Amino acid sequence: MIRLSVGGIPIPPSKLIYPEELMITLYNIISTDGFIARKDGSEDFIPDNLWKNFLSICKEYGTLIIGRRTYDIIQSYDKELQDSFVALPIRKIVVSGNKNLNLKNGYTIVNTPEDAIALAPDALVSSGPILNNYLIKNHLVKEIIFHEIPVLIGDGIKPFDKTKLILKVIDNVPQLEGIKVIKYNLD
Ligand SMILES: NC(=O)c1ccc[n+]([C@@H]2O[C@H](COP(=O)([O-])OP(=O)(O)OC[C@H]3O[C@@H](n4cnc5c(N)ncnc54)[C@H](OP(=O)(O)O)[C@@H]3O)[C@@H](O)[C@H]2O)c1
After folding, report:
1. pLDDT tops 50 at residue 3
2. Architecture of the domain made up of 27-121+129-186
3. How far, in Å, is the centroid of ligand 1 from the Cα of 94?
4. Closest CA to 64 of 123, 134, 145, 151
5. 69 close to ligand 1 (CB < 6 Angstrom)
6. Each residue's pLDDT tens digit, 81-95
7. Could you say which of 2, 54, 118, 143 would form a disulfide bridge with 25 (CB–CB 3.0 to 4.6 Å)?
8. Bridge pairing between strands 9-10 and 5-6
9. Secondary structure class of 86 (helix, strand, coil)
């Protein structure tokens, strides 16, 4: 491990980033017009039957990192969806700046995205623009996966800010029934 320092002060291991090991993947379900939620944060346009795809991709990666607001939204889901997520044998990490936050059992809390990545450099992240933008701006993302559903909602929350972002479409990605799977590499 290379020891790094700034002005002679060692950087704690949790702050060290190793680009060659970084494999963070962002994942979102989006409408055809590119929104992950309505303006008020609701996701009523996303059919419940897509939940199984979400669980399956979480399982594939083994660790899911989410922002605290996404954690709150998950708590409002139907019991059946929540139970299947709780039962999923993966590591679930929540990022929050709040050092006094109490989470349900089964979640690990960290106070910075870097701490989350130190725990799982190849994790899947499913969140909104706050966490997504931070990770993209800090060059911590390798790949982005969208499951696009054939619905137009007109207005809403975008997954991240596309300014200055160079996305390379990955060709010939396996598709799933009823949704378009889109994958991008980040330059
Ligand atoms: N369609 C989809 O696939 C999908 C998936 C996930 C979420 N969503 C939608 O996305 C929306 C939520 O996204 P959002 O952008 O508002 O919130 P978010 O990214 O889920 O969570 C933001 C919170 O995470 C913590 N956080 C993020 N970056 C941090 C940093 N650098 N340092 C410390 N803490 C940090 C902060 O928690 P504290 O405030 O506690 O400090 C922050 O308020 C919801 O509407 C949800 O429905 C959609």
Report:
1. no
2. 3-Layer(aba) Sandwich (3.40)
3. 9
4. 123
5. yes
6. 999 999 999 999 999
7. 143
8. antiparallel
9. helix
